[in-house]
Write a structure and sequence with these properties.
Length: 279
């Protein structure tokens, strides 16, 4: 089975034909629910941690708080397509729970971490999709009473049903939630879904059921065509996110009004001291 895969950039879509293994025709028929626009604050309750990332005036993606200062998104979102370099952090703004011009909270990015293995100038490959993850540290935390961060899912999936919350082309002013879509395939940390995504949905969180609140099992990297059916691509998160957190700890950055404080163990002292985008 051949898959037409594309991560969509502002200027040009990158396309590569790849084999993804077997998917049944029944699975490809899809059983996802319709998108629901979270139009008022009652609808948005519990989803405030999902927000729109505005990218240096060059488009937007979807991001999600996974800690008061950390936003999870797709790596290709944070690269300048003209230069191939990571965007300056303060040119990226996270709008938590954005709805019709109003945000629960708004923060500039302070630090951006992407996997060193991710190659933005490379044509789309399965390995790049697996590494298409970025973490942003915000210049100031968003308190949990305003937006309660989501937790990453770990361990094997016990069901194929997932949900997704995203912004996108034609629906950029409010979160659209798809309550139910399906995991079609999982192989070597690559995940395929029948979820309804589009430009701007890059970085959107895919949730697996866990108790009374979903946990993030993947983020959207791009779209593919399988036998003419549109599917969404994502990746397994725990190991790559752990590596990005370690990368940030190795190269910490302080906000202009804060200093980095390192504790010297035993001394009691301290020392002061780093692709869907809307066309």
């Amino acid at each position: 089975m051949k898959v037409r895969l594309s991560i969509l950039a502002p200027i040009k879509a990158l396309v590569l034909t790849l084999g993804l293994g077997l998917m049944s025709e029944q699975a490809l028929a899809g059983s996802g629910s319709a998108l629901t626009r979270l139009s008022d604050r009652d609808d948005l309750l519990g989803w405030e941690a999902v927000g729109r990332l505005d990218l240096a005036g060059k488009g937007f993606c979807t991001g999600t708080l996974i800690a008061p200062e950390l936003v999870l998104t797709a790596a290709h979102c944070v690269f300048d397509k003209a230069t191939g370099q990571v965007l300056l952090p303060d040119s990226v703004t996270f709008h938590a729970g954005l709805r019709d011009g109003e945000s629960i909270a708004e923060r500039k990015a302070l630090q951006i971490a992407v996997p060193p293995e991710y190659i933005p100038s490379q044509r789309v490959t399965m390995e790049n999709v697996r590494r298409d993850v970025a973490l942003l540290r915000l210049a100031a935390p968003i308190v949990s009473s305003d937006a309660d961060p989501f937790i990453l899912y770990s361990g094997p999936l016990t069901a194929n049903e997932v949900s997704v919350a995203s912004y996108g082309k034609g629906r950029s002013e409010a979160i659209s939630r798809q309550r139910s879509c399906q995991v079609l395939s999982v192989s070597n940390d690559l995940m395929v879904f029948d979820c309804d995504v589009t430009f701007g949905s890059s970085g959107a969180p895919v949730f697996a059921r866990y108790g009374n609140r979903g946990r993030i099992v993947s983020v959207i990297s791009g779209m593919a065509q399988v036998n003419g059916q549109k599917v969404a691509l994502g990746m397994s998160l725990p190991s790559v996110v752990a590596a990005l957190k370690a990368q940030m700890r190795r190269a910490p950055v302080a906000a202009p009004d804060r200093a980095i404080r390192r504790i010297r163990v035993g001394s009691g002292g301290s020392a002061l001291g780093a692709k869907f985008v809307k066309p």
